[in-house]
Amino acid sequence: MAEMKPRVALGLQGGGSYGAYGWGVIDRLLEEHIEIVAVSGASAGALNGAALVAGLATGGDDGGRESLERLWRATAERSPLRGFEGFGTYFEPFLDPFVARSLALFREASAYVSPFLPTLRDMHLFQAVVRASIDLETVARQERVPLYVSATDILTGAARLFTGPEVTLKALMASSCLPELFAPVEIDGRRYWDGGYAANPALEPLVFNGHGATDLIVLQLTPFVTDEIGRLPSEIAGRVSDISFNACLMRDLKALTELQRYARETDTRDARMGAVADINIHLLQAPCELAGGEISKLDTRWSTIGALRDLGRATAERWLSESGHAIGTDSSLQTLEAVIAP
């Protein structure tokens, strides 16, 4: 009799081009003896999630890996920075500081410039990447792996979750809509910004919506803890961005781990308490290399994307060697304090 695979629900945090790091992590996880049964994502995590479920629906684990690679190759092929790729690896150490400074200047000026760049404000480049790489019809139609995409309602600040046929191009745009770069995305008369502000990602549906997951693996793109605050305005802005996009994940993980501890220590078991008691919670933490990356998250050159993918695979490999034994058996994340202690 074949051994039962652990049934894994994936929570995918957002983070611009750092989503390529997430690609590397997922690519490595798909080599394990696991079954992905549900996915939740925000921003770049939503894109990774959409590519993943489309590939899983049509080609299984290999299809998921191929679909993710297609997404990130399409991103690099349409990158405004693609012109810097033709100089060869020898010149990269000289070009990287120039690219970083150019992106920083663009970020600083975006609030003043973007209103006069309608193709940027309307996310035309984003739309082109999605259309070229993700089979949205399959995403909306498939029922094998439910996908939840979060966006932030501008007026209320609350999270809106899109799932099933609601996961359209517009929903992915809403989930990835950084307000300093893009115009709000309107859906059904409501306007939305990036999902990372309100649910980065949404964990509740992965635990409580009856997907039968044995394990919840949360893939983080922005570290909770950093060694330095920095003094430059760009460094301070980067840390503020990290804190902002981690706040809801920190809150949700703290609540979930505390609820699980209570559920496992008591005999009170309604359906919700049973669900949280039975699922194993894991956090695949972002490495320190991804801290303070507000500017570098805009770098979509293939050299950067490839390096992030490799970092993701290496980080996943290390996590699996240290904590992989807990998949299917116990929570490797017992308390949030264990990972944010100074």
What can you see in these coordinates?
With 342 residues, the chain is an alpha/beta fold. It has a single domain, classed as Cytosolic phospholipase A2 catalytic domain, CATH 3.40.1090. It is built from twelve helices and eight strands. Strands 1, 2, 3, 4, 5, 6, 7 and 8 form an eight-stranded mixed beta sheet that branches. α1 packs across α11 (302-323) and α9 packs across α10 (271-278). Residues 90-95 have low confidence and may be disordered.
Element layout with pairings:
Layout: E1 7-12, H1 19-29, E2 35-42, H2 44-77, H3 92-113, H4 118-121, H5 124-133, H6 136-141, E3 147-153, E4 159-163, H7 169-175, E5 185-187, E6 190-194, H8 204-208, E7 215-219, H9 233-265, H10 271-278, E8 280-284, H11 302-323, H12 337-340
Parallel strand pairs: 1-2, 1-7, 2-3, 7-8
Antiparallel strand pairs: 3-4, 3-6, 5-6
